[in-house]
Amino acid sequence: MLGLTAASPIEARHALTRALVTRAQNGDAAAFGELIEDHYDLIHRTAWKWCGNRADAEDVAQDVCIKLGAALAGFDHRSAFSSWVYRITLNAVRDMQRAGKRRGQYADAYAEVTPDEQPPEQEAAATSRQLWAAVRELPDKQRNAVLLVYAEELSHAAAAEIMGIKEATVSFHVHEARKTLRGLL
Amino acid sequence: MSDDQMPDPFDSLKATQAPDPRADAKQRALAAGMAAFEAAQKKSEATPQGNPWGQRLTSIIASLKGIKIMDMRLPIGTAALALIVLPLGYQLYSTTSMTPAEVAVQRPAIVAPQAENLAKAEEPAPVVTAEPVAPAPMQDIAAPSALTRQAAPAGAVVQQSAIGASADAMFEREMAMPAPMPSLIALPTEPSGDTFTSFDEQRLKTAADEPVSTFSVDVDTASYAYTRRMLEDGFVPEPDAVRIEELINYFPYDYPTATSAAVPFQPTIGVFPTPWNSKTQLLQIGIKGYVPTVEEGKPANLVFLIDTSGSMDESDKLPLLKRAFVLLVDQLSANDTVSIVVYAGSAGVVLEPTVATDKAKILAALDDLSAGGSTAGAEGIELAYRLAESHKVSGGTNRVILATDGDFNVGIDDPEKLEDFIKGKRQSGTTLSVLGFGRGNLDDATMQALAQNGNGNASYISSFREAQKILVEEIGGTLDMIAKDVKFQVEFNPAVVNEYRLIGYETRALNREDFNNDKVDAGDIGAGHTVTALYEITPVGSGAEMIDSLRYGQTTEPPVAGDEIAFLRMRYKLPESDVSQLIEVPVTPEVVYRDITDASNDMRFAAAVAAFGQKLKGSNYGGEMGWAEIEALARSGRGADDSGYRVEFINLIKTASLLKPDTDSDPCDLSTSGDCE
Description:
The complex is a heterodimer of chains A (185) and B (677). By secondary structure, chain A is mainly α. Chain A folds into two domains: 103 residues, Rna Polymerase Sigma Factor, Chain: A; 73 residues, Winged helix-like DNA-binding domain superfamily/Winged helix DNA-binding domain (Arc Repressor Mutant, subunit A, Orthogonal Bundle), CATH 1.10.10.10. Helices cover 72% and strands 0% of the residues of chain A. In chain B, 33% of the residues lie in helices and 17% in strands. Chain B has three domains: 122 residues, no CATH class; 254 residues, Immunoglobulin-like (Sandwich), CATH 2.60.40.1230; 182 residues, von Willebrand factor, type A domain (Rossmann fold, 3-Layer(aba) Sandwich). The N terminus and C terminus of chain B are likely disordered. Chain B is built from 19 helices and 16 strands. The interface between A and B is large, with 101 and 97 residues.
């Protein structure tokens, strides 16, 4: 039902990724290079959205590349590769922020957000900045759930796979996030 | 996608686009990823582990025993689900993805390599079974270390399971593998983010079949410091992080020292009942390195190579490192010089070679260090070696000391080249030690590999106290090598010993023939270092044999040397020599203690540490001993404990018992969220 026309390029890319993963797991460095090249933009974009500044995003993205290199042999195809990449990225963000220090350091870096996007009226831009800042300050799971579902526009099921929790729990975290941010929204 | 009422403020989140990544940051990240990948490859080629679960197939089957229906259904159900969910997930993903759709590469691309693997797998693959222990451990042999890749052993080719199945079935199985036991799957970087060389535990051997056991000494203690830190922070360390010999060797033991530098150590041997198995015995071999007198103190030329990448900006990394170095500088004299080179973040010489007594200048340079920026490769290591060579002291210690939290982007990207470089410099007289800091990024395997190639030590500095131990109390051992390439070989007398098992030293095993080959690299011993090795031995006729004797073809060997238990040979080279010396000592019944309470404190304590390590890593052996018994044993072996390390260990047992209660067979099984949490 998903539309036979759409299915084939997706299948194709899925198969390509799978093939690359398998080859890389068998020790093919070129395949691994292609694999991270393909996924770097996803990793960087995610890291940037989660951290809100370039320096942290680049650090996290580099970390993730290193972890992928070291951990790829352990990837077991239980989830989609991209879900796994997401998960490692979110963990890397968490580890970095948990390591402390830097979060505060860049607390105001969200000012970078949306300067070049469709320039909305001043008020809307301010609200958006405020919202991003508030969302990034949410507890890990709430933040991950909200950003995966709304910023990355993934389904609850996909978000659940990435976070390693049940679908209903994703909705719960989103709900909790709404409660936390009630005053602001 | 929202199930809430329409004007949802969260919806505005999707309007924000992240800026495109910068090309140079991307290149750096990709290069770092490749380096990590290659390092991991080398590691995995050393162990026959190809497919992460294929080799574990037996245990998966065992775990499904008795639920035959599940056995069928689970894979099929999961496969069906995967066929639906994965494409769906991809479609959803691709609606936001910025990566363009690529040309189709369909299943054949996957099937082909597997078919090839299967073809190879059909040839009997004895390597996997025949030598389960040998491959991983080869770190110490000359070229080899965790980083070097010899040609892949035949076993490595057996990537997928060796079960004869069509390539298609393989594919389905791969798709559908019911996510067996997360704890069995090698996941070097998760959950801690630190990487370790994975290894299999030493297995039980029969004295009749393999009477000779050979290994290299290991004076590193990084594993204990890391394990302690994890436990104190409330985590059970991953099994590969626990190297039992490093746990045991962390503690000072009161072995008699040698009297001259010419024969720098002598063995202390004891045999006593095993605390976790009443029918077997432990054979303990301990040595302590000669401590040169003050007049013999050698001048030192030290170059610190310090990682200043952004990740070092944490209280337990660069700031701790600064305080640690202050301690070290305090130990040095007017004969010694110190210089500092930084890499990553900033790069270059921070302190030109300076006499160690000019403390103000050294400390000012240390104070100025700051961490920041993402890691940029610099010619750090070459610069450090150049500096070391320009102020080389003959007859003294010339050493580069690399301090990092796991970023080995020192200017030579290819790990193999880096090792060769370090090895080459070692031959020209400049050695390398590695100090690891922090948690979350620590690359233990690379640390070990580099230090071993550099004839130095790898230490993990988790706290100021640990810095004090390594850089003050054991400074002699850290800087002053008294013997190099120290190898142990123990030959068991099959007439007395039925089975034996070396505890720990998995990553240090040597081939029998390597013992007499002076070209084969092995561990080094510093002044005052103690090294302890434990064997669990099963005496003939004890009834504790795990391996049945052969029904056919067993030629009963004539008892060779009467009632001797074993024969110990040790080889070492003096620091300036390339020819090894030999020490030989028989293990006779005179050193046997009938009761463990008769054994020395050191013996009881070492046995307790071994039991602790085995229990912590979920070993196949010795698991029955409860934490309380281990604690009691450690207490009984505490002795004077001037330094307080043994008391600290006893407290650590308590912590471990809370984190991994006796009844809990494998805490990893509790993890519900899979591999990456």
